[in-house]
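lol ok so funny story. i was supposed to be doing the assay writeup but got distracted and ended up predicting the structure for this chain instead. priorities right. anyway since i did it might as well share w the group, maybe its usefull for someone
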Amino acid sequence: MASGEHLKALLRSHIKGDDSHFLAVAMQMAAHEAKQGHGKLAEDLRTLIDSAQSKRKPLPSGQPVPIGQPRGELSNLLSVALPQTRFSEMILDDATHGRLARIISEQRNFEKIRAHGLSPRRKLLLVGPPGTGKTMTASALAGELGIPLYIVRLDSLITKFMGETAAKLRQVFDAIRDTRGIYFFDEFDAIGSQRSLANDVGEIRRVLNSFLQMIEQDQSNSLIIAATNHPEILDYALFRRFDDVIEYGLPNPEQICAVLKNRLVNFSKSIKSWEELTTVASGLSYAELVRAADDAIKDAIIHDRGAVDARDVAKHLEERKAFHGRQRL
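and the output, tada:
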């Protein structure tokens, strides 16, 4: 029969009025019964679920999806938004695009996969330099799936008091269990660094151990996304807790050109040679390319010009490279 955790999850969903989560848990129960050899019961549950889904009323066109606002102490640990970002707005290499498309496909067929006792990909680790698209990926996944994006506020999560950070982390994982969404841990190395590092302190080791246990035990319908610029210092035990590790890098010449063209599309009439700008921009991240293009557009607007000049774009790209160089020193 259904486990106690399933029954508690059903009651929590009912109390919150979260029909989607209620039906998803019911599908988990059907899959559980099928695995236990209770075929007739599993089939009856699926029939009831299908009937309930067919009777659900869709939201009126244009009505926003309700966002579960964190309350109480949780409001200090999570910030929430409902992004409209789509992957069509990102410049991705074919391999990364394919892996993200697979995640979306599995999430959109969540019930089908769970009904066969399998789990869709939903625990992701994104690694790569700053500005290469990790945060935008979390927003785009939320936008494509139409679910809220919850950003975990590490400044509020991590405290100096023994045991307090682990307790707050438990609250976050309770929210992950109770409210479907994307939960984004940025700068994840703050809690995921290797337990053997010489400058590590006991409290951070305890927090990492708690995170390992919680993510291992998590069977929710939410997506957990962690991002880091420093994968080399992450504890090795973390990597096998994630369903996918996706690596991001600096854009190649074709991607640089595509980013600049996309960003300058309404102001680029006078630009004849994109190859020269691509050469100037080599070594910059996606975010730095966007900022340089925006700076060139703002200059054109301020001076009442209807287009940007290639020299102006090159100037702002060089400024970004100079700033980027100073940051490395």
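The domain at 74-247 is CATH 3.40.50.300 (Rossmann fold). The chain has three domains: 4-55, 74-247, 253-324.
back to the writeup now i swear
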